[in-house]
Structure formats: C-alpha cells, structure tokens
Amino acid sequence: MTNFSIKSLTCGSLLLAGFAFSACEDVMEPAMENKNDIDAVVNNGDWMSGILSGVYTNMPFKNAGGWNVESDLATSDAYCNVNSNTYINLSKSWTSESTPFKSWSTYLSSINYINIFMGNLGKNDWTGDETKNMLYSERMRGEAYALRGLYGYYLLRTYAGKDASGNFLGYPVFTEEFAGDADFNLSRNTIQECTDQIISDLNAAIDILPLEYKDFESDEVPAKYKEQGISGALYSTAFGAHLVGRINAKIAMAIKSEVLLWVTSPAFEGSTSYTYEDAANAAAQVLNTVGGVSGMDPQGFYWYLNADDVENGLCPAEILWRSNRENGHALEENNFPPSLNGKGFVNPSQNLVDAFGMANGYPITDTKSGYDPANPYADRDPRLDYYIVHDGSKFGDAEIVTHDASKDDALNKVSSSTKTGYYLKKILRGDVISGSDKKWNDHYHYSAWIRFTEIFLNYAEAANEAWGPKAGGSNGYSAYEVIKALRERAGICKGESDAYLESCAASKEQMRELIRNERRIELCFEGHRFFDLRRWNDLQGLNEKLTGVQISNGVYNTIDVNSFMYKDNMIYSPIPNAEVLKWSNLAQNQGW
User: Fold this and answer.
1) What is residue 76's predicted lDDT score, i.e. its pLDDT?
2) What is the pTM of this model?
3) Pick from 449, 484, 512: which residue ends a domain?
C-alpha cells in the first residue's frame, strides 16, 4: 500500500520562513511519519503560522512576474514571437504526459497542509495572552477555511471533467490530515461533492473573517467578541490593517462567485444542483459591499495606470485582491516593441482587435457602426487604445510604426518584432522608459489577482441566464445595468443612448453574446479566455484561426498566423498521467 507522507513538514524553509513547498521533498512520495517533528511544529507559534504562510506561497495566481497571461496564448486572442512557446502549440501537443497544468499534487498537498494546521490549531501559545490566542486562532482558522476553498476551486477549475463512463468528477475531497500510515489511493469525488465542500469552507471563512483588514473601532467589533468585552484595539491585533493582503471575507465571497459560475457553465451542466441564480446571488454578495453598480470604479479598466495609487502603496478601488508591489521594468522589457528596447513577447491578434467595437457601441461588422476598413483604428471602443498597440499608437513619448517595413517594429522584421502586427499595451507602464537613449526607469506594479470587474461580469453572465437581461432577482440590478455601466465607463456612446446594447437587451441569447464579448475585452491578457471558452463548451471558439494584419501601401491585409486543433476531450484538462499511474483508484478524464 502506498501512503501519503507529511515528511516534508520537517523542511526548515517552510516552517521558519513560509517558503514554497517545492523546496521540500515531494509530499506525494511514501515516507515514514515523523510525529516528533509535528509535535515540535505545534508547540512553536512561528513554525505553526509558517505552515499557513507556506500555503500562501503556492497560490495558483502566480507565474513568472506574477502576471497570469500565458494561457491566453492558447487562444485566438494572442500569439508570441517565441515559436517554441508551450501555449501557442498546446492544441497540437497536449497530452496527459505533456501538459502545462501540473499542479495536481501541489494543490492537494496544500490542502493537506491546511488540514494539518486546522487539526492542531489551538494547541499552542501564540502570544502569552489567552484572549489574544483565541483571536489569533479564529482569524487563522478563517484563513485556513478560505484557502482550502481556494485550492479546491483551482483543482476543480483545472481538472474537473468526465470519466470514461461520462460521470462528472472533480478531485479527492479530504478534510483530515493524511499521516504516514494513511492510504492516499483515493477516488475522485463527484463535482457536486467537491463543490459542496468548497462552498462549505468558503461560507465558514465568510462567517469568521472581516470584509477587510483595518484598524477597528470598538463599535465595529463583531457581536460575539463584543459580548466578551473585546475592544476595537484588541480585536485589531488579530484582524487589523497590518494583515492587508491576506485572504478576507470579501475575497472568499469572490472565490465563491467564481466557483458557482464555473459549475453552472455549459461544460458542466447537470454536474451539480447549483443554479445560475445561486451564482448571480454569490456575485451580488460581493458587489453589494461596494454599493452594487454604483460602486463600480470609474477608472477600473485601466487600474494599472493609476500611478499615484501604485507608487504610494495604495490599492486602486478596482482591485479586490492583489500581489505586493514589485519595483522594476521586466514586464515592459519583455513586451515593449523593439524600438523601445522591448522583446515584443505577447502579440495581440486581429481577432481580438476585431472584438473591440466602435465608439458608438456597434460591432465593426454591423452596417450601423461606421467602421472604415481603410482607417480601421478610428472611432473605436476607447479600450482598444488602452490595451493594444497598433500602427500609429502612442506609447509613452513614442509613436509606434508597424507599416514601414524598414522599421524594427514592422511585422517579422527582427526576432523581437510582432508576428501579428500588434503589440501589448495592457498592464504595462509607458513611464518606465524615457529620453532619446531609452533609459529604463523602474516603477512599481501590482498584479491584480481578482478585480471587481470580473465579479461584475460574473454577475451579468449568471443573472442573464437566471432571469434574462433586465431582471435581477432580489438584488436590485440586472445584467443589462451592469453591462451598460461597464460600457459607459469605457466611454462608449459618451452619454448618448447605446442603441446596440438596447437591441441586445431584447433577448437572453443576444445579451449572452454581448456579455461574453465584454468579458473578452475587459479581462484580456489576464488568464481568463482559455478557461472561459472551455467552460462555455465552445470548441468552435477554441479552434478559431488566429490572424494578424500586414499593412502595405495603406492597405490593411489580414494574414493567418496560427491554427488550432483542439479536440472534444480538450474541453476538460487531463490529470497528469504520472498521478494516474501512481494511484490505481484515480480515474482519468475521458479521451486522455
């Protein structure tokens, strides 16, 4: 019998500094239990809190630079100028042995660490004060519940699918510590069972944690603590502003909205008893904390340019959960055009450019739009110029020219030139380079892990499916009102009637297509598109040929850049084959 091990708990880097578990031995390998080491951890407050800190380091939002863009390259939204990139070739090379999604054991290991932490919580002395110990334990218990829900969601989001018999399966659910003599050869639970556990954990976290960490006045202390005579100052020692950045109740609510939208999406229809109404209400729970539609950040679609907030360490109103500030210019150096000393890595596609409508609200394919193929970037949705560099775009003090074949920014001119005729602008700061010598100037950046715009879009999608375009259940606002506010914020129609939106509001089907397109635009280059297309069961969208533009003598010619070969089974990701070989009870998703 193969047993699950907690051997890696003896790694000093995890316990003392909260470093990533990857520095430790593989927790999925057989090993003897070392109970004395666990006892030592439990009796040391710093080591015990280090377990929870270590779980944070494995959070799935992270990748190189803290910017979650690469999966967009597996879609028709973007290409890159490195032909060996895993994602641009994914549809033609994806197997259970060769998959970029290799976090199965990492996520399960993180859940086990959380279970170890929760099973031993309350056995040690955090502060030398009984009341403070109770408050610290409660806050950490809330965090642990939320993190277990988060890792459960990412297991579900990445690996949920159908087995060979067509049964919907998620991941093995377990809520107790797996010690050295435990059998980890578990079957995958149903998606219903997985979702029930995730929602239970998130609800528990919401009940325990504050909406946000701040310094509390005494009248803001929760009643259950106020009845014990706990002051605002004392409550703040465990739940105060010094904890900003850790998971709170509002973040747990947002994750809940993501979970429920995921399992009610077309690719998982019938997998659970949850409904679009449940998903909409969960999103509304988050949005109501900022006043609903009226609380939408007017600058939310370009939060990364709010230099005053970022430079001064303030959190833009748009961001619900983010990384720490990072000072540098790596994102810009990797993605700027070569004329700005950049490597031009991410190249937006013509497909994505075409998804941006006109400033009057109509798609460019509509006869009422006024779109001019000979002047294709005029009078477009203002978000186009915020997110994508096209011929004639201003970036910082420079004008980018892609139509002149003698210039390095032209199509395929040098290795760092664009392959599509476009360069990335979203996320990047133009002020990191200046002067004729194009000297780099380091500036601060945030990585937005969850934005309020995502939750608004979650609500719009679910509300439209639940009640239609113009109803909102008991929430007081509709999908139509959310999309109207998003488009007005972007400058579409400039306060005039949005006739195209009004026409879409006539049917659920038309509104669905508009909501999906708004999601494509607002969340581009943030790691959503690949997962959205798959949860929508949109194989046609996945296999849309990726195109670019070549400008010659003032004529804009569409060119083919990449093609895709996604198969039906690729709506669901494979469990890494090494895990299936290791555990005889672990069913693979069908087709893999």
Assistant:
1) 98
2) 0.91
3) 449
